[in-house]
Write a structure and sequence with these properties.
Elements: H1 7-15, H2 27-30, H3 42-51, H4 54-58, H5 62-65, H6 71-75, H7 82-96, H8 108-111, H9 118-128
Helix pairs in contact: 1-7, 3-7
């Protein structure tokens, strides 16, 4: 098991993010379509990682509210990759669950909306199962 001091470095490795390059311009959060649904905004995720506060990030609703549209990555002038930090935190949470999948194939019909693209369903199934 990783120690608490190893979590920020592990998150950096998984995400490939360059949090130390962030100049706090806020363009990532300004371009985020899920901004209103987040308790920690994309630019704040970078700050939390810099401070090593991974537990707060992983306990936030933002981990599940992020659409992974990468608008924040496209807007970032320094290629910091805030969405990948959020994705890495999500992945670390999923890995903590052990062998219990977040979503099973049997759960999907209840969650379906007729307008949901099939690509989204396949992507979610890959992401949330082992």
């Amino acid at each position: 098991m990783l120690g608490r001091t190893d979590l920020p470095n592990r998150l950096r490795v998984i995400s490939g993010a360059k949090d130390k390059d962030c100049m706090k311009c806020g363009k990532c959060s300004a371009s985020c379509p899920s901004y209103e649904k987040m308790d920690i905004r994309p630019h704040q995720f970078v700050s939390y990682l810099q401070r090593g506060d991974v537990d707060a990030m992983m306990n936030s609703t933002t981990v599940w509210a992020c659409l992974c549209c990468y608008a924040c990555i496209e807007r970032c002038p320094r290629d910091v990759k805030p969405a990948q930090i959020i994705e890495a935190a999500r992945l670390m949470l999923i890995r903590r669950q052990g062998d219990t999948p977040y979503v099973s194939a049997d759960d999907i019909p209840e969650l379906l909306d007729p307008d949901t693209p099939q690509q989204l369903l396949v992507s979610a199934l890959r992401k949330y199962t082992k």
